[in-house]
Amino acid sequence: MSAVEDRLAELGLKLPQVVPPLASYQPAVRSGAYVHTSGQLPMVDGALPATGKVGAEVSPEQAKELAATCALNALAAVKSVIGDLDKIVRVVKVVGFVASAPDFTGQPGVINGASELLGEVLGDKGVHARSAVGVAVLPIDAPVEVEMQVEVAD
Fold first, then answer.
1. Which residue among 26, 93, 150, 153 is buried most deeply as judged by most CB within 10 Å?
2. In 3D, which of 111, 107, 41 has the Cα closest to residue 77?
3. Confidence label for 114 from pLDDT (cuts 50, 70 and 90)
4. How high is the pLDDT of residue 139?
5. What is the dihedral of CA 5, 6, 8, 9, to 10 degrees?
6. Which residues, 6+ apart, have CB-to-CB distance to 24 below 8 Å?
7. Three-state secondary structure along the chain?
8. Residue-wise over 23-35: b if at least 16 C-beta within 10 A, else e?
9. pTM score, two decimals?
10. Of 79, 135, 86, which is closest to residue 107 (Cα–Cα)?
């Protein structure tokens, strides 16, 4: 196991299997020194643990936990391309989408779930630029979706 996966284990987490694509795309692709993930939903064992809009059917606290799950799924997608998460030089950019009730404005707090998980797992390598965007709806009624760009070494 890599040092990154050892750190996940210390946190009581396990890298999941890569979530199979829901349409015509790859979970992650490498271009030069970068791996770009597709948007990762908070799938656990092939299912969404919650559906609906944040601020209505899903609480902000639950959505924050789901964003962390998205980040974990994104790390699995990165590993599927590079083989060893210790090759990560740094997480460059995270983009989070939050399916939001019309009056919900706490998207940054929700996406903190992904950012905080990456920081806990990768330390300084997990510090990144970020966008948190509120949207009307996400695929299969997911409350949150996260994609990221990661710089990797050979």
1. 150
2. 41
3. very high
4. 96
5. 120
6. none
7. CCHHHHHHHHCCCCCCCCCCCCCCCCCEEEECCEEEECCECCCECCECCCCCCECCCECHHHHHHHHHHHHHHHHHHHHHHHCCHHHEEEEEEEEEEEEECCCCCCHHHHHHHHHHHHHHHHHHHHCCEEEEEEECCCHHHCCEEEEEEEEECC
8. eeeebbeeeeeeb
9. 0.96
10. 135
Interatomic CA distance for residues 67 and 99, integer angstroms: 12
Amino acid at position 7, single letter? R
Structure token digits, residue 65 = 């936990």
Over residues 28-75, the pLDDT tens digits come to 999 999 999 999 999 999 999 999 999 999 999 999 999 999 999 999
